[in-house]
Design goal:
By secondary structure, this protein is mainly alpha-helical. It has 20 helices and no strands.
Length: about 450
């Protein structure tokens, strides 16, 4: 027996395990991996911060309490917001048209076209009404956090999906808590204004903002369309998957048309004049729009890279979650920076004479005027400030709980983008929310397996 073992060891080299130093290369590869993930995560975080900050500055330009842009030139800011809203649609239109010409040209059915046009009409109308009509009348804290409430319908769909899949009760509690927190945020938001403000315009803006966020939340219906036993939605989802290029062209054109119509109609209805745009469209607005569109596109690209690197939590979810908190901190930082009264925020004619640092500081302090003008801060109302902080925190936690599944999502390395995200493009005004809610809901695989 011993001779047989010696014979095997002598000729079967595969049984011999060579002694190779693995530790140093393995540790080096691990360090490089963590370094790459950290760099991509920082880029995602920084670009999301830049995108949201520039967008909220545009919203601030449209507020009547701010002074960087004079009241008669507010349509310039509204036009800039409109460009931000249609920016991703223009990019998607160009990309889909190129693919339509050189790759696929499958036409969708009439039923699919009608459904897509209806949904895109509601989403575009909700986004335009929320950002152009309602948000300029709110304070900066509300504007930073109210965008997180667009996840309400996704949370509702998740509750239904978990019930159909008969998952554990602890899983269904997360989207239920998300719904509760978002609704609580709505209530606290309304109370913080209605209990301390008497303006009719504020009351109208509150209603429009709530309706607008609900309409925008319809945008991610496709992520849950195959989870329910509804043949109509399943057929439309399959048809959209086969004719994605044409559907994207149709949806982009609808978004551009509706957004342009809302901007074009709101300016004269609000008593403003489009003639001021001819003289007022200068560097500060153009720069803000260009920065927002460029940073949003880059942030979306790096977020896709993070997912394909298998760094879903460290380089995608965590930076996106923290973006809203960081943006709020950036604006509140201006409270600690002294600004002399001898250097006031001037109107558009003199703003070009200021340095970049001074201009940035003026933008931040101008944004905080929307908060200082509120009665709850003037009267130092504890209840009002509690409602304001409570609504902001509730919306943020609601978004986190409605996208909890991202932390447990299992994806293959170098996954195809269409397998990671439902829609091809992000939303200009809802960059972080659109990327989180656009991530495919994992439970769909479990339901399909149970049906099979």
């Amino acid at each position: 027996m011993e001779k047989e073992q010696e014979f095997r060891r002598s000729w079967d080299a595969c049984r011999e395990v060579p002694i190779i130093e693995h530790e140093t290369p393995k540790k080096l590869a691990q360090c490089l991996k963590w370094f790459s993930c950290a760099i991509v995560g920082l880029l995602v975080f920084g670009l999301a911060l830049l995108s949201k900050t520039s967008f909220l500055i545009l919203i601030t330009f449209g507020n009547n309490q701010t002074e960087i842009i004079c009241s008669e030139k507010k349509p310039t800011a509204l036009l800039g917001i409109g460009f931000v809203l249609i920016g991703p649609s223009v990019l998607l239109l160009l990309k889909s048209t190129w693919k339509f010409i050189f790759k696929g040209a499958t036409m969708p059915s009439k039923k699919t076209v009608f459904w897509v046009l209806s949904v895109e009409f509601l989403v575009a109308l909700g986004a335009a009404v929320l950002t152009i009509v309602a948000m300029p009348y709110f304070d900066i804290v509300t504007n930073v956090m109210i965008l997180n409430s667009v996840s309400i319908l996704s949370a509702v769909f998740q509750v239904v999906a978990v019930c159909l899949a008969k998952e554990k009760k602890r899983i269904i509690m997360l989207p239920i808590c998300s719904i509760f927190l978002i609704v609580l945020g709505y209530v606290l938001f309304a109370v913080s204004y209605l209990a301390f403000e008497s303006s009719t315009q504020i009351k109208v803006s509150i209603g429009l903002a709530i309706v607008g966020t609900i309409l925008v939340s319809v945008n991610w219906w496709e992520n849950y369309s195959t989870l329910f036993s509804i043949s109509f939605l399943e057929d439309i989802s399959k048809d959209i998957a086969q004719s994605r290029n044409v559907v994207c062209i149709i949806s982009s054109l609808m978004r551009i048309l509706i957004t342009s119509a809302v901007v074009g109609a709101f300016v004269p209805l609000s008593g403003q004049d489009w003639k001021s745009v001819k003289d007022g469209l200068e560097t500060v607005v153009i720069s803000s729009v260009a920065i927002q569109i460029a940073s949003s596109a880059l942030c979306h690209w790096f977020a896709v890279v993070a997912c394909k690197m298998h760094a879903l939590r460290l380089s995608f979810a965590l930076p996106i979650y923290m973006a809203s908190i960081a943006v709020l901190a950036v604006f509140l930082f201006a409270f600690a920076v002294p600004v002399t009264e001898s250097d006031p925020s001037t109107c558009f004619e003199n703003i070009q004479e200021k340095s970049i640092g001074t201009l940035l500081l003026l933008m931040l302090t101008d944004a905080l005027k929307t908060l200082r003008s509120r009665d709850i801060l003037v009267t130092k109302s504890t209840a009002g400030l509690g409602c304001l902080i409570g609504s902001a925190l509730s919306w943020w936690l609601g978004l986190m709980l409605s996208t909890y599944y991202i932390w447990y999502l299992k994806i293959d390395r170098i996954e195809r983008t269409q397998e990671l995200f439902v829609r091809r493009m992000y939303e200009g005004a809802f960059l972080e929310q659109s990327m989180l809610l656009n991530t495919r809901f994992e439970i769909r695989k479990k339901i399909k397996e149970k049906r099979g």
